[in-house]
Structure formats: C-alpha cells, structure tokens
Predict the structure.
Amino acid sequence: MPNLLVTGGAGFIGSSFVRQAIAEGHTVTVLDALTYAGHTENLAGLSERFEFVKGNIADAELVASLLKNRRIQAVAHLAAESHVDRSITGPADFVQTNVTGTFVLLNEALKYWDHLPKEEQSAFRFIQVSTDEVYGSLGSTGKFSETTPYSPNSPYSASKASGDFLARAWFHTYGLPTVITNCSNNYGPRQYPEKLIPLMISRALSQGKLPVYGNGSNVRDWIHVEDHCNGVLLALKRGEPGSTYCFGGNAEFSNIDLVKTLCACLDRLQPRKDGQKHESSIEFVKDRPGHDFRYAIDDTKAQKELGFKRKYKFESGLEATVKWYVENLAWCRAVEKKR
C-alpha cells in the first residue's frame, strides 16, 4: 500500500479520506495549515500509520522534505478554500491556496518524481480533488460529465478550475501522473457549519433563523462524504493518468426542499422546546451574486472504469448526519469559534 501525502487532511472531506485510507492499509502523512475549517479533532483516534504535520501547501521547502523523507508514493490533494460566499468577499485567499498552493505541490511533486526509479515513477499518482462547480451552471435538465466544458462562475470555482488545468498541464507537459476528480456537494459528519446542511442544523438547534438564498429553487446533487472518498481512493488505485473522474450522489434537491427535509428530521430527533416546528424559522434572504442554478453529476465513467458504487442512500445518510450533529453539538460550537 502506498505511503500517502494528504493535503487538507484535517478538514471535512480530507479527514474522511484519511480514515478510509488508513482502514485500507495506507500509511498517511497529513499536511494541513489548520485554518478555520481544519481541526485536529477530526483526526482523533488515529495513531498507527498516521502522522500530522502543520504547514502550508505553498511552503515548497516543507513539501519537498515531506515527499522525500516520507518516501511518498501518492499525493491526494484535498487542501482548498472552498466556500463560495467567502470567495466573493475575499478572493485572494482562494487564489493563494487553490492556484498557487496547487502549483507548488505539483512542482515539488514533479521534482521528486523525476528522481524516482522507473518502476516507482510508473506507480506514483497525484490526485487533484476538485468540484463540479468548475463546470458552471445547468438548466433544468442534463448532467455534468468528464467531457463538459469548464465554465466557472465564482472566484472559488475559477480558482479550482485553475488548479485542475495546472494538474492537466503537468501531466501533458512533464508526464507527472496526475488524475483529476470532480464531485457534487458533499454531506456527512464533521463538516464546518458554514455549508448549507451543518449551518441549518446548527442554527435550528440554537433556535436561530434558517436563511435560504433567493426563493430556494437552486438545485444541488448530494453525495455522502464517505462515498466521495471511496471514489477518490478508487481513482488513486485504478485511475488512468491524465484522466478525469466525476462522482455524484444521484440525489438532487432544491435548497428549500432540502432545508424542509432537514427540519422534519430535526422535529423527530430534537423537537423545539417551544413546541414550534423547525420549519417555522426558515427565512428567505437576498440571493448571492452569480448563484449557479443547478448542479448534477453523471458518474457513469467512474462506475465503469473504477467500479465506483454508492453505499449511502440520501434519506438514511441525511438522517444519520443530522443525528451526528445533534449528538455532537459541542463540536459544532467549538469549531464555530474559529470563524
């Protein structure tokens, strides 16, 4: 099993990936800057075949030393600034991390890879974990696939698209065996409560308002974080260098329908003390600029070439997620202090 360098491994998706990778027998080195969305608590309980290093992916000297000293055989690049709202008010951080940071990782990985024996060069992989938002916005029909042209509409998606293009270029120009993955919206435990699902749950549990952009008609496809991470591991093991693989949840919901579903789940698991339904706290707020209408993923290629399968059905996965947040409210309150 390869020694892995996982960037952003203390974040929501990263920590789920680390847990799965270790369970499969990999030795993992996590590199994470521990910004507001990264927490060592997400990696609690991991000891064997695991090491945590606090640092920035744009630190070329640090990246080079980790690759060499840990004899890294694959890089799973999950470190990213990822919240669209933050990218609108502060795009510089997104360019620094998602563009410059990705460049540094690719460049140092190339230098390291160039000096590996031929057999190890052939086995090496650099996995660029990206988003479906790079493809832009869909109308009421159709789905994104690996052949969809890029059309990013926010500073976040533009910065991720830039990282994808760099990974593609490092393969086609230098031969570095990169693989790009694009996924739909993730949900599950340990997600920082600025994203829709944990934000609604956290607000509801404190009987706050539940803000929904516009009229709530924007549609997203939801995939459980563990299903997504399983797909990334499959791409690492079976992906063709230079290829792209999309992972979706086949679970499309408008934002307002999703929030109402969450409210109904919370009514069962954690009823309000005042007897009101959680749905009564929904309020519609001014839409954000350039809000993409709809995302959906066709992951037929990943199913055929990688053997990708989803373990979670959305309804049961969502209820289990809500239950986790109800039972771990202290975690939510602790991480929210990092805002």
Summary: The two ends are 37 Å apart (CA to CA). The chain is about 45% helix and 15% strand. The mean pLDDT is 96. The first strand starts at residue 3 and ends at 7.
